[in-house]
Amino acid sequence: MQRKPYGNRGRAPKKPARGAVPTEERRVMVPRDNELIGIVANALGASKFRVVCSDHNERICAIPGRLKRQFWIKEGDMVLVKPWVVQGNEKGDIVYRYSIMDKESLKAKGFEIPTV
Q1: How many domains does the chain have?
Q2: pTM, two decimal places
Q3: Residue 48, in any domain of the structure
Q4: Is 57 exposed, middle or buried (0-12, 13-18, 19+ CB in 10 A)?
């Protein structure tokens, strides 16, 4: 087996340094047809949360099973909520969790951000 004289020699690619500024702008996930932006008011347990949505309704939202381990949600986080077809004004699913930078870009695009 021949060795390459240069390159990473089979190792994983290097990660960017901590605190490095990304050169490209991230795309923000915007609400589609019946999705809403919400702020988590409090955690209820069993991956359910009370969320205040942008249509001024308070919903009990759950994290679907396929997304349970993909993101961790705390009180005060901004999330994307998809209301249920049945009991849409009372319940919904949390589809995405926004970062702090996403919050600023959504405000700049004109989306209403609810307050808790």
Answers
A1: 1
A2: 0.75
A3: yes
A4: middle
| 3-state helix, strand and coil shares in percent for the chain, rounded to the nearest 5 | 10, 30, 60
Look up residue 67 and give its amino acid. Answer: L
CATH number (domain holding residue 91):
2.40.50.140
Task: Report how far residue 32's alpha carbon sits from residue 45's, in angstroms, rounded to the nearest whole number.
Answer: 28
pLDDT tens digit sequence for 12-34: 777 777 766 665 667 888 999 89
pLDDT tens figures, 51-103: 999 999 999 999 998 888 888 899 999 999 999 999 989 999 999 999 888 98
Tokens of 49: 């949360």
**What domain range is 53 assigned to?**
36-109
Whether 24 is covered by a domain: the verdict is no
